[in-house]
Amino acid sequence: MVDCSNPAAIQELERSSFEDSSDEITDATASDTSGSAPSESDVELDNENNEDDPASFGGPETVNDGDFDRLVENLRRTDVGSDTTGVLSRVWDFNAEEHDAEFKDDLRAASGIGRVKRKRARRTGPALSQQVKSLIGDGNQAYIDGDLHGCIHIMLEVIRIEPRATSAWSVLAQCHEDTGDIQKALQLRIMAAHLLYDPEQWERLAVQSKEMGYNQQAIYCYRKLYNLDPTNIKALLDRTFIAKEIGDLRTARQSLLAVLKHIPHDLGVLKELRPILIELSDLSTCASLFQAAFEHYQSTFPSGQSISPDTGTSIPGGGFDMMDLFVLADLYNTSTLAQYDKAVYVIKRGCRWLQGRADQKYWDMCEDDREYDVDPDKVPGVAVVRIGDLKPGMYTLDVNARHRLAVARIKMGDVDEGQMHANIVLSENVMDYAPLFAEIADAYFEREMYAQARPVYELLGADATTSSLYVLLQAASCRRMLGDLQEAAEVYQHVILADPLNSDAKMKLAEIYEVLNEPRKALDLVHQVIDHRRRMHRANREGEQSAPPPSSSLFEEKSRGKARESSSKTKTGLTVMQVRALEEQKEKEVLRGYSRVRNLWSGMMSGDELAEREWLLEAEKLVETFRETRNLFLSTRNNPFQGMFRQHRRSKRSEEATEESMAARLQLELVESEQLGQKSKPSKVDVFRGVSFDDWLRLLMQYAFLLTNRSQYSLAEEVLRHILYSNAYQEVSTQDTIRLAIISCASRARQYPAVLEQCRRLMNTHQFNNEPLRILCAALSSGLRQTDSFIISTLQKHMLREMKIHDAAVKNKDTMKWGVVGRRYVLDPTARNKEEEADDAIGDGAVDVAPGDAAAAPDATPSKFLPTKHNPMLVGLYGQICCAAKSYQSAIFYLLHAYDYCPNDPLICLSLAVASLGRAMQRQADNRHHLVAQAVAFLTKYRTLRTETDSGNLDEVEYNFGRAFQQLGLHSHAVRHYERVLELAEDRLIRGEDVGLAREAAYNLSLIYVTTGATPLAQILYKKWLSI
Predict the structure, then answer these.
(1) DSSP labels for 496-543?
(2) What is the dihedral of CA 870, 839, 725, 722, to 10 degrees?
(3) Distance (Å, rounded) from C-alpha 876 to C-alpha 883?
(4) Which of 90, 213, 575, 746 has the most CB atoms in a 10 Å sphere around its CB?
């Protein structure tokens, strides 16, 4: 025996001819393990290809034996006298080898290869033992005597001994029927029918089940009937009608597809099947069926007409008339298929065929629609100049057909041709063709042709018979996209008055109010929407019905739509086609929003307040769309973004989502998360929803800059930090750009700890590079709060470790080790202090790498670059940090090292002079005069080096000398240098140049004047240099 729960056994059993029936009952009745028994038609979808082909069902004997064996096996596991309501609620075992042998015999018979054993005659049942025959006789006698309970007891004993005794089941069912238990009698007859090979018996059981309201059971019986009699189309149609009645559209779909196998291209079946396929979002199948029918009728009736044998009248297209053409064109015009060229082909060629001009194939040579041009005298304003030798045909074209042509041409980008057809349609009476007007306006709107869509929507909204909330909302959207915000707000207000519960209109109006700088009105509308949704959620929760009472049917009898809805909560909830349609809709929304943002960009940059608010509102939607897409923020961030739908082989294991309340976007992402198990070589995609990642980054950074200017730095930092984790922006250059944007925003908001953090991350990323050090010095150039961040202890320790690493790299490369996780060189851990390692782990986690990503990191291999000589900038910067922290002695030590590495750098000389003067002013200095002399010596060398390189910086040199003398108390010398700075500044004023350090020199000079009592001179300086 083979366990059905074993995947290997299931794969083996899928080859057997009775799979369709056996799997159906197994899945339909597995209530003991799952808690709820889905209907038999759930499993049909796993074998839909077999169901469509009548030859794949196997012989009737094989099918019934397989099902009955499982029924009997289940009976043996239960008490003989137990109720049979739950008989089908087990997972049965069966002999796979026996059915595999029968399957091979069927293959030999079908192919004509090999020897096939002669089939035995249909068995009517096993040979019964004398004991069983005696018991059956006793039971029949008890029934004749009217002892129904005794008869039931005897027949149950017969079934226990020999479950294949057909008469026992029949008599037992009759006994229950005589006692009034019709439901149990029906169940027993269904069990007995598995031993009989009578299609009429299954038909009677199906009719009886339908009359008793057991629709799922009736569907099962009709399926058995079709298995036994594959030519019985009526069984398929009855099964279809019942499935449609209970909302089981997938079962109805499979039944009608099976009907089409028998009567292909039947228009009646296609018309029944079309709404079902549309409801299931299977538009591709629907289009292919109608396309095949179109080609079939074209080849069968090349003249475009047929004669009715009953009335003798002409039938256009042999039955495939203009309405069927419209259906096929509408399918191709949907955004799901988006095969607009095929829609044009169908309308042009189909109308030509129905007009009896199928032989005029030369019109297919024309890319335009000159075949159906109109006389400009009859329809003014639609004259089109045609280029070429072929003159316009001027053939008549139905308005509905021209409307399909207009929509297809507009959507495919052939705007001129589409507008020509649209103008002809729009010249008709709007009262007669309002739906066509609306679809043309929608096509314009989809192509972002708001100026063309707006008058059509307004024309529809002007009359109560053609107006609707949708039309008004679209008209308001057009006005908004064209910049008429006040008019758009008026339309939204009108919609809200007509429908106070319209949340969409309220949210759109709130967005306009926000742009118009009316936040209170916007907030009131948002609160109304939130309250309404909460009330609806509470009402839905209170309105939930209790569990249905137990049923006597062999299957779970409830609405198919509700069953699908409940079952989909444990999966993604959407088919792949629906997910793709949802993604296409999101992409269109993103493209529309980005187009609007791009149009507003120049106004926003020029300082237009209204344009800036609207730009922020539109950009916020795009930013949130980017940030909420999980495919852009995977756990393995070194794999590049590969698109929303990646092509690969089907994974052997499918991941099921267990979340019960997922919105549309999460369902889209869950479908993609099931595809992550497939290992394949990553291929980078540079576009997300129609917008390149460079444009996304530009938008995100500009959005953060505007938020920072509006005192919303925390939100701007959150956005920029979030996109650092995106798979789309894991390249080093892009990461640097984002970090520089964070530094810019933090500097603007005076959040200098964030500036320091990002600078340190840049230093860790670009090891042995001086550019991050320059960025640090520029970002923390001057100011008290900047100085506090500059001298913080964590930065000092970080710089000290970097100096040690640099020194080791120059002196002894053997002590260097490449850190895979940090992706930078570090000292050998055995030679490092544990405290330094702990601080390193806390302070220098600059590279955001998950432990599992290290091996796959693109730059995990050691860098070949190592310094060969000492870096004066690193040591000099650390000396300046010590100097700013008033640790002048340490500053002199490190600055002297920098001087040894680069003795001709004026900045190092100036820093040494400052540090020497600072140390000389401290009480602990025991060689004060030596330090002063040393400071003057470095100042002198600084002046020599500075004037040699650039003679235009004399004011800087004079100012620094004046500042040094002022600190030493030599005011007369200081005044002379400060006055020299002011003289140079006056010369610059005459030339119209910047005054340089004049204000700083004037301020210091005024302090000396005030200190020495020369207040009038200080007043002159105030008025001339220090007044605004």
Answers:
(1) HHH-TT-HHHHHHHHHHHHHTT-HHHHHHHHHHHHHHHHHHHHHHHHT
(2) -110
(3) 10
(4) 746
Alpha-carbon dihedral sign for residues 843, 848, 852, 853: negative
Strand ranges in 235-391 using DSSP code E only, listed in sequence order? 305-307, 314-316
Q: What is the dihedral of CA 213, 215, 221, 224, to 10 degrees?
A: 180
Q: Where is 738: in which H helix or E strand? A: helix 732-748
- Domains identified in the chain and CATH numbers: 270-306+315-428 (no CATH), 950-1027 (1.25.40.10)
What the block records as the tokens of 528 is 């109304």
pLDDT value of position 115: 57
Both tokens assigned to 243: 């499935």
CA pair distance 26, 280, nearest whole angstrom: 25
Q: How far is CA 350 from CA 66, 191, 333, 466, 997, in A?
A: 50, 53, 16, 30, 84
pTM, to two decimals: 0.59
Three-state DSSP at 590 gives helix
Paired strand residues for 307:
314
List the one residue out of 208, 227, 229, 228 whose CA is nearest residue 217: 208
CA distances to 259, 811, 875, 956 from 806, in Å? 80, 9, 10, 33
Length of the chain: 1028
Residues of the chain predicted below pLDDT 70: 1-125, 383, 541-575, 635-684, 820-821, 829-864, 951-952
State both tokens at 921: 């002013």
Predicted pLDDT of residue 716 = 92
Q: Which amino acid is at 526?
A: V
Closest CA to 743 of 699, 704, 792, 783: 704
CB 266 within 8 A of CB 242: no
CA 588 to each of CA 581, 591, 592, 676: distance values in angstroms, whole numbers, following the listed order: 11, 5, 6, 25
Answer whether 643's CB lies under 8 Å from 685's CB. yes
Q: For 112-161, write each residue's pLDDT tens digit.
A: 555 555 544 455 567 888 888 899 899 899 989 988 899 999 989 988 88
Query: For position 518, what pLDDT does the model report?
Result: 84
Crossing angle between the packed helical segments 771-779 and 732-748, to the nearest 10 degrees: 10
Structure tokens at 384: 């089109």
pLDDT at 17: 31
